[in-house]
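## retry 2 of 3
previous attempt timed out at serialization; input unchanged, resubmitting
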Amino acid sequence: MAMTKTRLDFGPWEPDAALLNGAQAPEARNVIPAARGYRPLPSAAALNLDPMPSQVKAAYARHDMYGTNIAFAAAAGGIYALEGGSWVQKYAGATASDVRAFAEYGDAVYALFGSKLLKSALSGVAGEFHAVEGAPAGEALGVIRDFLMLGRLSEQKNAVRWSGLDRPDEWPEPGGNEAQYVQSDMQVFPVGGQVQAVVGGVGGVDGLIFLERAIQRATYVGMPYIFQFDTVDREHGCAAPYSPVVCAGTCVFLSEDGWRMTDGVSVKAVGVERVDSWFFNEASLERLGEVRGVHDNRNRVALWSFATPDAPPGVHDRLLVYNYMLDRWSYGTAECEALFQDRTRGGMSLEELDGFGSLDALPFASLDLALFKDGDLGVISCFDASHRLGNFTGPPREAVIDTAEHGGDRMMVHGLRPLVDAAAAGALPVYRNREMDARRFGAYTKQQRDGVCYQHLSTVYLSARVKIPAGENWNHAVGVEALVEAEGGM
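## retry succeeded, writing output
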């Protein structure tokens, strides 16, 4: 019989879904979902800077109002600022709590160090952090409208309290005349458990308060009530305080039973029968509270770092990637302590490139990359297990992608042609004779001069796995073209 070409696409990664007659990809590692197939996930390129003295628990980086790059990193023993290639301590202290968080308001950066609210004034340089007088003790920090808001208060875990209107340093006792004058108050939520996160500016909503088992919408209404709180969801809350990520008018977060999305009016599941079971099987359940999410402006995806049971203490070894525009997932491998959005590393000048060392040490394929043009987009940065700062702008990591399964009639497989713009991409067949059988994996073969990875096997059901080596420059992977010949029999 004549040999035919059968197209096997890289479908959406949905490891929880059944493979039977499916169109999904069982594996999509170290890639970013695209409209057709996948794009490469960059590796983290370490900058030639001094490491932090200890494990980093949170970080923050922005241009201040004076155009100066400001970068902070919070560790167990204090908060540090990056100055002249070295980390300079701006606050020293120790707490039993691992909570570290940052928020920007005007020309200042506020930080939670344990349950203590601190402030650093910015005036072209990073100032020392000092305690905000009168502020309550809390472990959730956010900005809603013109208020600084604290949640998970030490005296009441199921409450939030906010500063004066456009007066983030004023925290008068709730209920008093001074508090009414500056519109400062507090709110207790009797149902839903303790406050997990305070998130401002979700779509057309002023803010959201995530509790363990509920979500509350905050709407500024002025005096005498100041904020109106309405229940968005009374069944599902937030399981990881740092997981909410605001993107395209919505907020994606980890709930107790999987990944969900809210626009502040309704909530929908985005991981059920797709990635939820995979995530809970892969993640260390004892460390779910460490899951940390960021928004990648450049790639228009949400990223979360999390730890598997094999990860060292304080280190995350997996990334979960969600393209919210396409509603598609993928995942990656990494080694990071703190993942954060870094707006100081986009639009680098030639002087700032000195941080990478010599020109030969630059991890970029070209100085024409958007990294040096679109400064406002920023990059995603992290601290690795050695406490060194790096950016996800390095060469692509090793990518592994599966196609959807095809078949039903017996066929002879002669070869697999990866539809990938990478000459070094190899492919192997994944096959089985019955749906009840476990999938079997053939051997990887390299592309020959005609782009085909030659194979020779007989099967009924066929898919393909493509591997693109680490460091290989590529842009698009859409699928595999299988060269097959129909056979008789079953």
